[in-house]
Design a protein that fits this description.
Helices cover 42% and strands 26% of the residues. By secondary structure, it is an alpha+beta fold. Helix 1 crosses helix 3. The longest helix is centred in the last third of the chain and has 22 residues. The protein is globular. It starts with a strand and ends with a strand. The model has no long low-confidence stretch (mean pLDDT 94). The structure holds (R)-mevalonate. (R)-mevalonate binds next to helix 4 and helix 5.
């Protein structure tokens, strides 16, 4: 028996980092998918394609070829999302195959998509009747186990799809926003740090100086205003708020020189707004553009490894 699913990646339009502290965020589920298949098997076997690893270091000694420390570290981190999901269901043996158009850790919620896809595929294979909301919750548990601190944003975007408003009141409130079409250009850049380490760095800064807490709070207010701009389809205002959100990420110190340059180039090329998306340390840049072509070129010129143009969100995790 085999089950195949596809889980979408995401781009954060507003509120990364501040969402970890319960402030609101707006996330757009991307129609760029990670395919996950689960097959009954005696042992635990994980199969991944070459696109999942951006580069491989090999150590060659006489007739032996070993995976080098960089690749080993990367694979271990990425595989841990799969292993924790398998553990969560207490399955003694299973084969999980992952196909991804992006390296995991690209800054577009790829690890959350791996967790969502694995949780969905295993639960269907086991005949459990789980809905998308339960898949989101289980995958969030997996993400927290691997990452330490994590908001439910990325796993909710991958499981549920659409454009979501995420905010912590007494409980986490996850609300779909109706957005019919929005022109986004997304560039993927070298990611130099993990999400876990960036979230920990921000936590450290918040402890050290209360001004950082003001930055986080302001990000929440920007997200609130962005929701109104989105509902009014006021793209100019939305773009301006993206620039403000980016300035806050710069203030938190999570923006690299390359992605900072990409934001400036995108705006020079006519984008209404642009910002780093996700935890930072490189990763993804998202721009709002009436004419995506010159903005996509600007991303390439600034060093993007991949550039996507999207206008409609995905529908969340799906059985294939
Ligand atoms: C990562 O995609 C977004 C962060 O806000 C972390 C999280 O929400 O768990 C930085």
């Amino acid at each position: 028996l085999q089950v195949r699913v596809r889980a979408p990646t995401k781009v954060t339009l507003f509120g990364e980092h501040s969402v970890v502290y319960g402030y609101p965020a707006i996330v757009f589920s991307l129609p760029i998918y990670i395919d996950v298949s689960a097959t009954e098997h005696d042992d635990i076997l994980i199969v991944t394609g070459p696109a999942n690893v951006s580069s491989v270091d090999l150590v060659i000694k006489e007739d032996r070829i070993d995976v080098g420390p960089k690749t080993k570290k990367y694979l271990m981190r990425y595989i841990s999302y799969i292993l924790k999901a398998i553990e969560r269901f207490s399955v003694p043996g299973i084969m999980i195959e992952i196909k991804s158009p992006l390296p995991v850790g690209a800054g577009l919620g790829t690890s959350a998509a791996v967790a969502v896809g694995t949780v969905a595929a295993i639960s269907i294979l086991k005949g459990l009747n789980v809905d998308k909301m339960e898949i989101a919750k289980l995958a969030w548990e997996v993400e927290k186990l691997v990452q330490g601190r994590a908001s439910p944003m990325d796993t909710a975007a991958s499981a549920l799809g659409g454009v979501l408003w995420i905010e912590k009141k007494e409980e986490w409130n996850i609300e779909p926003l109706s957005v019919d079409e929005i022109n986004l250009v997304i560039g993927v850049f070298e990611k130099q740090k993990t999400t876990a380490s960036l979230v920990a760095e921000v936590a450290e800064k918040l402890k050290r100086n209360r001004l950082y807490s003001e930055v986080i709070k302001l990000m929440g207010e920007i997200a609130r205003e962005a929701r109104r701009a989105l509902e009014d389809r006021d793209w100019k205002r939305l773009g301006e708020l993206m620039k403000l959100n980016h300035a806050m990420l710069e203030a938190l110190g999570v923006v690299t020189e390359e992605t900072s340059r990409a934001v400036h180039y995108a705006i020079e090329a006519g984008a209404l707004g642009a910002k780093v998306s996700g935890a930072g340390g490189g990763g993804a840049v998202v721009a709002l553009a009436e004419d995506p072509i010159p903005v996509a070129s600007a991303m390439k010129v600034s060093g993007a490894k991949k550039v996507f143009t999207v206008s409609e969100p995905s529908n969340g995790v799906e059985i294939l």
